[in-house]
Design goal:
Strand order of the largest sheet: 9-8-10-7-11
Protein name: Amino acid ABC transporter substrate-binding protein
Bound molecules: arginine
Number of helices: 10
InterPro entries: Iontro_rcpt_C, SBP_3_CS, Solute-binding_3/MltF_N
CATH class of the largest domain: Alpha Beta
Distance between the termini: 55 Å
Shape: globular
CATH architecture of the largest domain: 3-Layer(aba) Sandwich
Number of domains: 2
Main location: other
Helix content: 40-55%
Keywords: Lipoprotein, Palmitate, Signal
Oligomer: single chain
Radius of gyration: 21 Å
Strand content: 15-25%
CATH superfamily of the largest domain: Periplasmic binding protein-like II
Organism: Neobacillus massiliamazoniensis
C-alpha cells in the first residue's frame, strides 16, 4: 500500500519535472496537445471526402498524421482549405502542420520547413483516350489545366518556355478532371499517384509521366519555420518506416508498394 503511494507521488513529481522543461511542452499541454493540420481535401487518395459515405476528410495523409500524432502524443484536427493557401496558414499560425501531398521545393523552403519525403510521385499528363497527345511535344498550342499554386503549375510554365501552351489554373483537382472531360482542357498535369485513382473510374482517360526524378514531385510534411515539431515528426516517420506501419498505410491507400 505504502509502496503504491510512494510510486504515485514519484510519478507526479516526474510528470511535473518533464512538463517544466521547455516552454513548447508547457504550451502544448495548455492547448491539450491538439495540432491543427491544414490540407486541401481534393486529392484522393491523399485527402478527400467520400461524399457517398460521409463528410469526413479521409485518406493516406490523414491516417499518417494521426499515426504520427499517436506516437508523439498529439491529437490532430484537420482543416480544409485551397491548396494555394496552405503555406500562408503556417505562416499566420492558423495551422501547425500541413499534409497535402505537398512537395518540398526550394521555393517553399524559404517560407516553411519540411520533414523527410514520405512518398514519391511523378508528374503525369492526362488527356482523353481519343486525343492525339502522346508526348510532350504534342501539347503545342493546347490548353493545359493545373492546380493553382502547385508544382504542376510550375511545370506547365517550364514547358511553356519551349512548347507554347495555354495554361489554365483551377483551385480543386476534381474541377480539372471535369473540364478535361467536357473538352474545355486538352490536357491536365497531375501526379501519377493521384491519376491512378481517376483511371480506375474514368475509363476514357489516358496519361504518360514526364518527370524522370520521382523525388521531384514527392510529398513531405510542412511546418512553420524553426518549429520543434519537424525533428519530432521525422523521428516518428523513421519509426513508422522501420516497424512496417508505413507499409501498411501505403497498401491501404495506394494498393501496393511504391
Ligand atoms: N505535389 C504537388 C505540389 O506540392 C501537388 C500537391 C497537391 N495537393 C493537394 N492536396 N491538392 O505542388
Amino acid at each position: 500500500m505504502k509502496k503504491g503511494i510512494l510510486l504515485f507521488l514519484t510519478m507526479i513529481l516526474i510528470t511535473g519535472l518533464l512538463s517544466a522543461c521547455g516552454t513548447s511542452n508547457a504550451k502544448n499541454a495548455a492547448n491539450k496537445k491538439v495540432l491543427v493540420m491544414a490540407t486541401s481535401a481534393d486529392y484522393p487518395p491523399f485527402e478527400y471526402v467520400d461524399t457517398a459515405k460521409s463528410d469526413k476528410i479521409i485518406g493516406f495523409d490523414v491516417d499518417l498524421a494521426n499515426a504520427l500524432g499517436e506516437k508523439l502524443g498529439y491529437k490532430i484536427n484537420v482543416k480544409d482549405m485551397d491548396f494555394s493557401g496552405l503555406i500562408q496558414s503556417l505562416k499566420t499560425g492558423q495551422a501547425d502542420l500541413v499534409l497535402a501531398g505537398m512537395t518540398p521545393t526550394s521555393d517553399r523552403k524559404k517560407n516553411v520547413d519540411f520533414s523527410d519525403v514520405y512518398y514519391t510521385a511523378q508528374h503525369m499528363i492526362i488527356t482523353k483516350k481519343d486525343s492525339n497527345i502522346n508526348k510532350l511535344e504534342d501539347l503545342k498550342g493546347k490548353t493545359v489545366g493545373v492546380q493553382l499554386g502547385s508544382i504542376q503549375e510550375d511545370k506547365a510554365k517550364e514547358i511553356n518556355k519551349t512548347i507554347p501552351i495555354n495554361i489554365e489554373d483551377r483551385n480543386r483537382i476534381p474541377d480539372l478532371i471535369e473540364e478535361l472531360k467536357t473538352g474545355r482542357f486538352d490536357a491536365i498535369i497531375i501526379e501519377n499517384t493521384v491519376a491512378k485513382g481517376y483511371f480506375d473510374k474514368e475509363k476514357d482517360l489516358k496519361g504518360f509521366t514526364i518527370s524522370d526524378n520521382p523525388e521531384e514531385a514527392g510529398s513531405a510534411i510542412a511546418f512553420p519555420k524553426n518549429s520543434p515539431l519537424t525533428a519530432k515528426f521525422n523521428k516518428a516517420l523513421e519509426e513508422m518506416k522501420k516497424d512496417g506501419e508505413m507499409e501498411k498505410l501505403v497498401v491501404k491507400w495506394f494498393g501496393g508498394k511504391q
